[in-house]
Design brief:
The complex is a heterodimer.
Chain A: H1 2-15, H2 17-27, H3 31-49, H4 58-72, E1 92-94, H5 105-115, H6 119-129, H7 134-141, H8 145-167
Chain B: H1 3-20, E1 21-23, H2 25-32, H3 39-42, H4 45-68, H5 74-103, H6 110-122, H7 124-133, H8 145-150, H9 153-176, H10 185-190, H11 197-214
The chains are: A mainly alpha, B mainly alpha.
């Protein structure tokens, strides 16, 4: 029973690993911190897995937890003891051959822009870029749909300005 | 860059990530073997240390009051009583805050969860306010009847100035340590250092949540 639950959990994580990586990337600039944040998100996902409410999609549940953990995540200068010490390796790794995605100039600018946003704006921008409907964004964030449109409109405006400055 | 171009850029980023991201199954399986930790086990050593020191201190002062009650002077009894009462209150708030943060359901929508967590974290301000409120009693506990009867005007004046200024500072801080003053210089000076960063962050986050709620 436990093994079966664990298998389902791992397959959910495997299918949606991009969500965890993108959220961690948006909220943690430093690779070492990101590694810890990814681990923390997966630990919290596992701890909440029992309470998963199938009224919502797996992705909604994952986004809520990943964003809540990422926003509350705070790393002090002196490194905090990891929750699971034996796990010294990364849980999510980028295959070396494809490491160039990180070096793509425009993706770099976009990630840089997202990293510079305030915590809640960052969450909205990520969900917008992931092409989530306003209804789904509202379910994940708890922000009203009209407020989502207004906020996303403002963030996009700043983003466009930034890109035009870079390209000018 | 147009909306569609930005979306396409992000889409291509996502596709490349899908191809290149690998889940370390062994480590992921390790996580599924983690048992849900108790409240105590989840606490950081520094927090446990702070609470233990606080409880030991409160126990020590309580014992001192009880043991010396028949013989001790009232200045000491009242001062120590106020000090220990305020410390107990601060410990209770601290513990209550930690328990509620531990119990918070992070699978709930982001805005409400963050509002709850940030509000809880910002109650640390209440702990600071209460602890500052005990400042004046540190200037009165050593007084006794003999000093009162035999003291001279200079001693009285000095005591009045010291206790008066400590009381003024304590009341002023109690009234002014609040979210709205987080950007003031004196506030930053008191709450300077790494251990206060989560508090400052939570106040900033509360402001963001307010902005979002106001726009709703």
């Amino acid at each position: 029973m436990q093994a079966e639950r664990s298998d389902i959990f791992i397959s959910v994580i495997e299918t949606n690993k991009g969500i965890i990586y993108k959220v961690a990337h948006a909220y943690c600039i430093h690779a070492e911190d990101r590694k810890d944040l990814i681990q923390e998100i997966i630990v919290q996902l596992w701890k909440s897995f029992n309470r998963y409410n199938d009224e919502y999609k797996y992705t909604t549940w994952m986004y809520r937890i990943a964003l809540n953990v990422a926003i509350s995540f705070y790393r002090k200068e002196n490194r905090r003891k990891r929750l699971t010490d034996p796990l010294s390796d990364n849980i999510l790794d980028l295959v070396e051959d494809n490491a160039l995605i990180e070096t793509n100039k425009n993706i770099g600018y976009l990630n840089q822009f997202i990293a510079g946003l305030k915590e809640l704006d960052k969450a909205l921008m990520l969900l917008y870029l992931e092409e989530k409907s306003h209804k789904e964004i509202a379910e994940i964030t708890g922000i009203s749909e009209t407020n989502i449109s207004t906020k996303i409109g403002r963030i996009k405006k700043i983003l466009k300005q930034k890109f035009s400055t870079i390209q000018a | 860059m147009e909306d569609t171009q930005i979306i396409n850029l992000w889409r291509s980023y996502g596709q490349k990530l899908e191809e290149s991201l690998q889940l370390n199954r062994k480590n992921a399986e390790e996580i599924t073997r983690i048992k849900v930790r108790s409240f105590l086990a989840s606490m950081k050593p520094l927090k446990i240390f702070t609470i233990v020191v606080g409880i030991l201190w409160v126990g020590f002062v309580d014992l001192l009051i009880i043991k010396t009650f028949p013989a001790a002077n009232w200045f000491f009894i009242v001062s120590a009583g106020i000090q220990v009462l305020l410390t107990k209150l601060a410990i209770i708030i601290y513990l209550y805050q930690l328990i509620l943060i531990h119990q918070a359901d992070i699978s709930e929508p982001v805005l409400e969860t963050q509002r709850k967590l940030a509000s809880l974290k910002s109650t640390t301000l209440w702990i600071a306010r209460i602890l500052f409120l005990q400042l004046p009693v540190w200037t009165t506990f050593y007084w006794n009847k003999s000093m009162l009867v035999n003291g001279n005007i200079a001693l009285y004046l000095l005591q009045i100035v010291i206790t008066g200024s400590f009381t003024f500072v304590a009341v002023w801080l109690f009234r002014n340590i609040k979210n709205e003053n987080k950007d003031k210089k004196w506030f930053r000076l008191i709450f300077n250092g790494n251990e206060w960063t989560p508090l400052i962050k939570s106040i900033e986050l509360l402001n963001q949540v307010k902005e979002y709620k106001a726009g709703a």
